[in-house]
Specification:
The structure is a single chain. The protein has 166 residues and is mainly α. It has one domain. Helices cover 77% and strands 0% of the residues. Helix 2 crosses helix 5, helix 3 runs antiparallel to helix 4 and helix 5 crosses helix 6. The longest helix is centred in the last third of the chain and has 34 residues. The chain starts with a helix and ends with a helix.
Amino acid sequence: MILLLAAVGATVAALLESTVVPYLRIGESQPHVVFVLAVIVTVVGGIDRGLVWAFVGGLVLDALTQRPMGSTAFALLLCVGGVAVIGRTLNRFRPFVPIVATALLSLVYTMSIFLTFSALRGPVPTEDPVGLLIPGVAYDVVLAALLGPLAVAVVDRRADSERADW
């Protein structure tokens, strides 16, 4: 049942990213809601929920934005694996893991989408792709800084209250 909720949440996030989020642009940058929430879901819920979120959200996002099918899902699955490694490494600092993981993996996510898109559809004419993508990375980190520690605190608080006191 929990994995089904992750799939439904990923679908809703992909719908939001393809419809509402383009109106939240600051300059040329816009947040990658599916990616940021995949990072948070992986930290909070574990690798299984994160993989479901990444796969379903990536496929829905590919279908809605007419990207090559599976390119976004591949990039998200790659990043969710990285988040799992970072989460185990920084387990003591769990509220900050979504921020650190987003900062480290957001450029990996956007560059892997850029590379697979240019490999499958032909070269994209741009001179400096990293410079073009850095403002989006900053936007993703700000979004993760707002949502990540809050989600971790809520889940940790809920887990503490379910524990039996003897």
